[in-house]
Amino acid sequence: MAKTNYHGPNTYDGYDKYLGRKNRRKLSHNVYVVRDSEDITIVFHWTAILRYSPDGWVVLNSGGYQTMTTKVNLNQYSDCSVWQDKHTWYASFGDSGKMEFIDGMKFKNVDSLC
Hints:
Elements: H1 12-19, E1 24-28, E2 31-36, E3 39-44, E4 47-52, E5 57-60, H2 68-76, E6 81-85, E7 88-92, E8 99-100, E9 106-108
Antiparallel strand pairs: 1-2, 2-3, 3-4, 4-5, 5-9, 6-7, 7-8
């Protein structure tokens, strides 16, 4: 795992609290949490890899960059599991089982199902 400045829950409320009155704050090297209208986004380089909405939905996105570092950040800043097997990415959310990773896939975060 990458060294991070954030040690709270991977939820909308957790990141909202971390941001406080700021609209952008650094999480780790090249990773920022950004207030984006009503949503809160985790941005790696210039790619929004995670989008948290106030109603508990989380959207995952590799931006087409299915790299080890993108995978590490998706795992570190969300409560899902993303891994690779034979060049194919998979994700699971709580007890959802193994699903092939697709940019834009959503899950309901019931820490605020994962």
